[in-house]
Amino acid sequence: MKKVLITGGAGFIGSHMAEELIRKGCAVSVLDDLSTGSLQNILHLKDSSSFHFTHGSILDKAKVKELVAASDEVYHLAGVVGVKLVMENPIRTATVNVEGTENVLEACLEYARKVLMASTSEVYGRTISSTAKKFNESNNLSFGTSLRWIYACSKALDEYLALSHARESGLPVVIVRIFNAVGPRQSGAYGMVIPRLIQQALAGQNMTVYGDGQQTRSFLWVKDTISVLQQLMAIPAAIGQTFNIGSEEEISINALAELIKNLSGSASAIVHIPYEQAYGKDFEDIRHRVPDTAKVRSLVGFKPSKTIRQIIEHLLRPQKNPQP
């Protein structure tokens, strides 16, 4: 039985990863400090003999070493996430993301464990190539002066640390830049737009869109996200490489809000809120964030299973028609 450690395994993506790996016959150990993760996300796994949960932090170097030593491979998904949380806690963001990741990488190096490290689309920064409309893995990284970018900078440093370990010491590491995974268990509490808009629509509240709403994003079903991560973990050719993980289906936030309103049958008004009111005066946004996924498609044949409309329909279904 393969033994897998998931840091951040009580979070949105991590809990789905744990669930799927157990289904495939793996023994899964989760390390999570529950700062943004939730026991509710993994409650259905607690009685499985293949599941073990440790309440702790990736900043605990000794605990990280102990858990890595007892595992065959590591999915490093832990980190500070969500624009709102980053803006409110910039120092903690940098500390957890950089020091915690170095603890994980050093332990994986010491015990010769393969590690898949979750990075983020935010590392591309504010700008996109003038000759393309989608972010490619070879694009330059360009950050602004807002504290919002401390998250992106910390994750970019994580990538450089991982690649440095790979080059200098042969650490088997795969880096994935995740673009807006979405699905069940995702919370709107930390700035995630789809669960927030769905919650507001179903409650009959104003649906809040930040800025002018013309900014565009793409969204990938979480089951697709974890599937491609597992495929990359299994392929030797992925080692030492960086991959965009996301959907190329682009949608503006205005159009997203209208879609959610229409599919939910909500009478809610869609209102626009200035960025400074939501996040503070120095906040900077990215106008367009859509990945070029040619690299991962060529390696594993990746293709999203759901359109954005199908994702919203699926998320609305259990809430409109709850099962007993």
Could you characterize the architecture of this molecule?
Strand 5 (114-120), helix 6 (149-169) and strand 6 (173-178) form a beta-alpha-beta unit. The strands form four sheets. A seven-stranded parallel beta sheet has the order 3-2-1-4-5-6-11, sandwiched between helices. Strands 7-10 form a two-stranded parallel sheet. It contains twelve helices and 13 strands. The longest helix is centred in the first third of the chain and has 21 residues, at 90-110. The chain is of the alpha/beta class and 324 residues long. It is globular.
Describe the secondary-structure layout.
Elements: E1 3-7, H1 12-23, E2 27-32, H2 39-42, E3 51-55, H3 61-69, E4 73-76, H4 83-88, H5 90-110, E5 114-120, H6 149-169, E6 173-178, E7 181-182, H7 193-203, E8 207-210, E9 216-217, E10 220-221, H8 222-234, E11 242-245, E12 251-252, H9 253-264, E13 270-273, H10 275-279, H11 294-300, H12 308-320
Parallel strand pairs: 1-2, 1-4, 2-3, 4-5, 5-6, 6-11, 7-10, 8-13
Antiparallel strand pairs: 9-12
In short:
By secondary structure, this protein is α/β, with parallel strands linked by helices.
Radius of gyration: 19 Å
Strand content of the residues, in percent?
Answer: 15-25%
Q: Helix-strand pattern, N to C?
A: EHEHEHEHHEHEEHEEEHEEHEHHH
Rounded mean pLDDT score? 92
Q: Work out the number of β strands.
A: 13
Unreliable spans:
none
Shape: globular
Helix/strand-derived class?
alpha/beta
Counting copies of identical and different chains, the oligomeric state is single chain
Number of helices: 12
Specify the helix fraction band. 40-55%
Q: End-to-end span in angstroms?
A: 34 Å
User: How would a textbook summarize the main sheet?
Assistant: 7 strands, parallel
Strand order of the biggest β-sheet: 3-2-1-4-5-6-11
